[in-house]
Amino acid sequence: MSKIKDYALSDRGRLAYVWAKDHMRILTHSISLLAKSKPLKGITLGVCLQITKETSVLLVGAKELGAKVVACSGNPLTTQDDIAAFLVSKGIEVFAWSGQTKSEHDWCQNKVLSYKPDIITDDGGDLNTKAHFDRKFRLLKIIGGTEETTTGINRYLAMQNKGKLRYPIIAVNNAKTKTLFDNKYGTGQSTIDGYLRAMNLLFASKRTVVCGYGYLGKGVAQKCAGMGSKVIVTEVDPIKALEAHMDGFYVMPMSQAAKIGDIFITCTGMTDVIQKQHLLSMKNGAIVGNVGHFDVEIDSKFLLNQTVRQVRPNLDECILPNGKKIYLVSKGRVANLIASEGHPPEVMALSFSNQLYSILYVLKNHKKMKNLIYDVPKQIDNQVATDALNSMSVKIDRLSKKQIAYQENW
Amino acid sequence: MSKIKDYALSDRGRLAYVWAKDHMRILTHSISLLAKSKPLKGITLGVCLQITKETSVLLVGAKELGAKVVACSGNPLTTQDDIAAFLVSKGIEVFAWSGQTKSEHDWCQNKVLSYKPDIITDDGGDLNTKAHFDRKFRLLKIIGGTEETTTGINRYLAMQNKGKLRYPIIAVNNAKTKTLFDNKYGTGQSTIDGYLRAMNLLFASKRTVVCGYGYLGKGVAQKCAGMGSKVIVTEVDPIKALEAHMDGFYVMPMSQAAKIGDIFITCTGMTDVIQKQHLLSMKNGAIVGNVGHFDVEIDSKFLLNQTVRQVRPNLDECILPNGKKIYLVSKGRVANLIASEGHPPEVMALSFSNQLYSILYVLKNHKKMKNLIYDVPKQIDNQVATDALNSMSVKIDRLSKKQIAYQENW
Amino acid sequence: MSKIKDYALSDRGRLAYVWAKDHMRILTHSISLLAKSKPLKGITLGVCLQITKETSVLLVGAKELGAKVVACSGNPLTTQDDIAAFLVSKGIEVFAWSGQTKSEHDWCQNKVLSYKPDIITDDGGDLNTKAHFDRKFRLLKIIGGTEETTTGINRYLAMQNKGKLRYPIIAVNNAKTKTLFDNKYGTGQSTIDGYLRAMNLLFASKRTVVCGYGYLGKGVAQKCAGMGSKVIVTEVDPIKALEAHMDGFYVMPMSQAAKIGDIFITCTGMTDVIQKQHLLSMKNGAIVGNVGHFDVEIDSKFLLNQTVRQVRPNLDECILPNGKKIYLVSKGRVANLIASEGHPPEVMALSFSNQLYSILYVLKNHKKMKNLIYDVPKQIDNQVATDALNSMSVKIDRLSKKQIAYQENW
Amino acid sequence: MSKIKDYALSDRGRLAYVWAKDHMRILTHSISLLAKSKPLKGITLGVCLQITKETSVLLVGAKELGAKVVACSGNPLTTQDDIAAFLVSKGIEVFAWSGQTKSEHDWCQNKVLSYKPDIITDDGGDLNTKAHFDRKFRLLKIIGGTEETTTGINRYLAMQNKGKLRYPIIAVNNAKTKTLFDNKYGTGQSTIDGYLRAMNLLFASKRTVVCGYGYLGKGVAQKCAGMGSKVIVTEVDPIKALEAHMDGFYVMPMSQAAKIGDIFITCTGMTDVIQKQHLLSMKNGAIVGNVGHFDVEIDSKFLLNQTVRQVRPNLDECILPNGKKIYLVSKGRVANLIASEGHPPEVMALSFSNQLYSILYVLKNHKKMKNLIYDVPKQIDNQVATDALNSMSVKIDRLSKKQIAYQENW
Q: Is residue C248 located within the same domain as residue C289?
């Protein structure tokens, strides 16, 4: 019943799956330990995640643990069609293909919910929100959800603040082993990757403007500096701004940064960060893109309403009324996923280990949980970190009894 | 009634005070705004802080705001005697001198408490702990305390867990504008400073072992790498260890690091980090020091019981039974304070702005507060960051109404 | 009479040419200034360069300056077929296509020489060497040559040492504005690009072994560290080894590095750097590739004689007799060119400005020149640097008369 | 017959000598190998070097090799008086003390030449120049000289260009193991050290202007960035300027940098780099200093003619006519030597190994040498690098026969 682009791509997808699996030992090790007891037996897992080779390792794993898995894509553009085909070949229901329209994307999400999932694993909050407010689905019996992104969590927070949450959601994104590593190191590298492919220009010698200095922005700023760029940071939070300033970056308002930047990367999760007036004040040839979740950070609509010509894969030349050429990466949508292959598998192994453990936690504990957003339990977070260190043969110290006693003394 | 080393040093102290004041504009600006209304009038402030030029700006400021100020030193060795003299000349009671014995240090703390302070500002927790458990002082009426260090807070946490706290304490250390900047950037630089003065050896070409990867360790590791060292990190927390590993540092247990390191810097707040067996396994010529609060991180006792000769200011050569020479910086006590001048004034301006605002907050709100440890209120933290950015002419963006609405939406 | 893969790719080639041209302002500015006087009129230019979008800007420019241009590729694998088609559409003779066999590559070089070029512009030394030693061509009247690479120059040096050079050759590679920028910054970035595309794994958390610490190796090491890798350097030159050690990298022999590295990048210009015994001692999963000119640095033959399977574009899995999987990037050939698009245009603009000025210099001065290797004249080098700074709006100081006098005094 | 400040300081000097000797194993190892054969027997060595603990290791070593050693200081301010006393106690003639006037400094140089040295080892070129042009000394029979600094070599180059050199001089400074390591890594660290002691302000958050991007400037810029500063570079050479720009630094003329910098460090070897008009345009509170050889880079005269007050050791507050306070480090003289202890011993071990080998080379080869400036022979340079790697237990690869053959082939 799946709907994907091309079932024939399954073999290519399998190759990518094997590559990812070989580099996600933390996750596959946990799956192999759990597979015998089939802890997810009888459960339908509704999934809205980026359909990538790394995700396929999680979904195939969930199936091996006994779940029925139904998946759509967290983003209308980013689905890797060979992976979708491979997943179907493994008995997973998939409703996803690359280059969807907004309404196709919506249709796919509805399809997933029509399978009446027990648990929802979401990336951005679309599926959980739909399960709360869409008439067709708001009577579904869902025991809990998990969420991959800051963006999704912010949406649930707004819902929680108004008392609207109707089942517990674990904020997988807030696990330190997710936020620190996926948002910072993963996106740091995949942003470099995506921009390099889209523009093939030198980072060194250029001023790169990084909008936002959360974990995402920190990772991106650090890696851009590592590639030789002069990094400028824009922020609205004074503490983060001060941190960027102390880390050696120039901090200034967007109105000023717009005039002097060569490359722009939005990392805020906020809307309206690079506005029409900023775009008009930019230098001829400026490159603009976004790695935050939604395509609202840049006024892409304005840009794409100009004279537009695709000059390279994932790069559109937009000629503004003032005659300047501004280049937009992947139409303002997550450049690190669309213009490259997304996070490396080692990073996703951390995130998805948290996802898997959190799904199991929800299943076991949902009756004791309230309709709130929960952090990933500390012991899961530590376990994932320990698994990761082991998988890379890194050894660390342990507190002695004497040290533990010292810690508890005053 | 003060007891200090030499009253004649007052003029030299004044010069240092002026230098610090000129570079602590955030703090002095706040003081000048508040000075007219004398908000601390009638209050006795008991202080246990490092007696440095930066501290003198806070203490003179508190006096200008109306307080009676009585101070001892947070550390028996680090008092700058010229500053102590200058403070006395400004009408502050001081019981502190450099090179105190443990019992002299204790006597000074008793002296401060004998003035029956209303509020205690502490660095390390000695004074607040004494006010709780020392028979002579446990009946003092204290409306609240503030604490500068992680070490102090950990002690109060242990007390709070056993229900022993008898007045509210604001954990100034936990303000982001304190922890992030003082612990990370301040100690990062002052550690380089202290070690350079103590050893005058090259950081580049050497392996520097940084024990602990909290804010302190992060700052130290980053600056050591910035000076060209190959940095090795030891940790007990798997998440921090993983972070260090992803930041490009080598992570290993101390037993292994001890054998290959050239320079050692403990940053843990924990006891027994570099033990006798580690010292015995080190290379001939290794340099060992501590920048954590207490001198318990290294087994200094063992070292100082060997054949010892001071070869440079703040550097002792200890010849071990196995014939190797190990060099100990400032007898295992906070090397960044003892072997250099401590944090630069700009960093202390952030910490002490939090201190000042927190003291005022306690005074105003203590009746509503419980006998618990409180974080610095978020609005104080943001205010200090904003003050700091202003003082350095750094401008940032503000959220628009549309953006605030977006944030609250789902 | 050209021979290329597909003439229909011309339009796609034109798009790439325009993108490159827009980002090679230094070069295109010079060309436009010179175009009127047609200084290369009557000259046949024989070219053996990587056929990329950047090269097309040089070759079309040379034609605009009056030359007849005949080109083959510096590498049998790297030709961009759309560019080749575009060049033909502009009236340039091209004998190049991607994926050539060794004998096809040789045939193309012969074709270029059959046009009896007056000047030869070479990349690696194949064409100039053939013009010296191949019976068919050794009577050609050639007034001079230029050379893009260290590898080529080393070959001519060997020839010069034996008195075999029969016309002057300008070592474009030795211009500081070539070596410093192309070899260091250009390859630094394009190596990251190529490896990211080939492997999609995290640089952070891994040990990357960089073989060779010349300009190439320095650039690669710096950028790998900038991406978070722990960099290990191997060298045979004690001064360069010491430099790497002082720059914070670990230095060790290949026999030792082979056992602990995760990623290997050869940058030496030497043969036999990673040998069979090194490959056998590597960890399972190690990734091995080369960015030096020839594919002799790694024992690729050994690897490609094992059980081999292509697991990703430009990445072959080779299963060794000991059961370990070793992954070889682009069959051991220049990974930064084959697995990505090669150097960014801004970098090539520097190299090719030196090429163009050097070709003009040979034409004007060849009668006064001896049959030797010449450095690019200092005034050309300075001019290119000044052009580059101007194109990026970077202003610098000039020596005053007083300062010049000071310089000449003692 | 020596003239120094205080003979009683000898014991303190000996302690410093031992510390240095223990960390200059490369040099002391060579000395111990040579000591038996007394190769310098009968030779008088005239020395004009900074009188530091590291220099004492060279001079005592030269004496152990048989030379009569007579020394004055390369700088009127920097002599370490305890070292001078120690040297005298070891039978070396010393004419040096800290805080000399210009005429005292001149007198000391004359004293050294009055001993009729056979070989002159110079730092800055004063002694060699005097031996050429001062009537009293121009008939001295000198067999050769060695020179430690770029500044000195530039002076001899001017002399050589006019045919005025009357004996060969080895440019020790030009050895890669000197220039790369002393100028770059040594001064990089000692500049941080000197400025930290002089100002005790934060490098992070500040704009540090580095004037000059030679080896010295590169080392300083890199270390300042490593301490968190935003680095601005000024240059007159377009290639170096481009390099700084590609390395991630901001490049601009001094007139512009003057207005926005917080800290200034001149590293040029040129006069008039920071001029009166620049000083007048600086921000209130700017810190200005020099680490180049002579005190001509900053218009210190102008600054020291204002209202001046010493606010910290080696830091003068100068109140300009426009009311701004500008702070001058160590009166514009080599801040890294005066405000700190100078280069670490490990770095000086490289320089002084080159010195020692060069002195021996002059002695052995002077009859074959012309009156020219000579580079340190390549085999000496390689030997010093190899000695250094050995002393730090760093192992490297060697070229195989096959590789050497490959290198010589075309």
A: yes
Cα D288 to its chain centre, rounded Å, is 20
Task: Examine the domain organization and report whether B383 and B241 are in the same domain.
Answer: no
Question: Over the stretch C98-132, which tens digit does the pLDDT of each residue have?
Answer: 999 999 999 999 999 999 999 999 999 999 999 99
B27 Cβ contact list (under 8 Å, min separation 6): B57, B58, B61, B349, B352, B353, B356
Name the band, by pLDDT with cuts 50, 70 and 90, for residue A138.
confident
pLDDT at C293: 85
> Which chain A residues touch C if contact means CB-CB below 8 Å?
15-16, 18-19, 22-23, 185-186, 188-189, 192-193, 196-197, 200-205, 223, 225-228, 285, 311-312, 340-341, 344-347, 392
Cβ-Cβ contacts under 8 Å for D379 (sequence gap 6 or more): none
Cα–Cα distance between A223 and A291 in angstroms, integer?
14
End-to-end CA distance of chain C: 64
Write down the pTM of the prediction: 0.92
Q: In which element (H, E) is residue C81 found?
A: helix C81-89
What is the rounded CA–CA span in Å between residue A23 and residue B332?
A: 43
State what percent of residues in chain A have pLDDT above 70: 100
Q: Say what the pLDDT of residue A93 is.
A: 98
CB neighbours (10 Å) of residue A162? 10
Do C278 and C247 share a structural domain?
Answer: yes
pLDDT bucket at D407, cuts 50 / 70 / 90:
confident
For residue B159, the chain A residue with the least C-alpha distance is A410
Average pLDDT of A150-161? 92
Measured between CA atoms, the residue of chain B closest to residue C245 is B205
Closest residue in B to D341 (Cα) is: B200
Please state, as a whole number, how many other Cβ atoms lie within 10 Å of the Cβ of residue A237: 18
Smallest CA-to-CA distance from A202 within B103, D362, D79, D247 is with: D247
Phi-psi region of B314 (alpha: psi -120 to 50; beta: other; left: phi over 0): left
Q: Are residues C39 and C169 in the same domain?
A: yes
Split into its structural domains, chain D has a count of 2
User: What CATH number is attached to the domain comprising A358?
Assistant: 3.40.50.1480
Task: Kindly state whether residue A293 falls inside one of the protein's structural domains.
Answer: yes
Shortest distance between the Cα of B136 and any Cα of chain A, in A, equals 19
Q: What is the ipTM of this complex?
A: 0.90
The Cα–Cα gap between C335 and C300 comes to 13
CATH of the domain at A258: 3.40.50.720
The closest CB to that of C204, out of B205, B230, B248, belongs to: B248
CA distance A23 to C285: 9
- Are C281 and C371 within one domain? no
In D226-301 the beta strands, taken as DSSP E runs, fall at: 230-234, 250-251, 263-266, 287-290
Q: Which residues contact D51 (CB under 8 A, 6 or more apart)?
A: D71, D73, D78, D79, D80, D83, D84, D87, D94, D96
Nearest neighbour of D243 by CB, restricted to C154, C180, C239:
C180
Residue ending a domain, choose from B311, B338, B365: B338
Contact D196 B200 (CB under 8 A): no
What residue of B is the nearest CA neighbor of A405?
Answer: B271
Q: CB distance C396–D251 less than 8 Å?
A: yes
Q: Are A142 and A120 in contact (CB under 8 A)?
A: yes
CB-nearest to B238 from A241, A256, A386 is A386
- For residue D93, the SS3 value is strand
Alpha helices, DSSP H, located in B40-175: 53-64, 81-89, 102-114, 126-133, 150-161
Query: What kind and span of H or E run contains D300?
Result: helix D300-304
Contact B156, B148 (CB under 8 A): no
Which residues constitute the domain of residue C192?
185-338
Q: Look at D204 and A246 and tell me if their CB atoms are within 8 Å.
A: yes
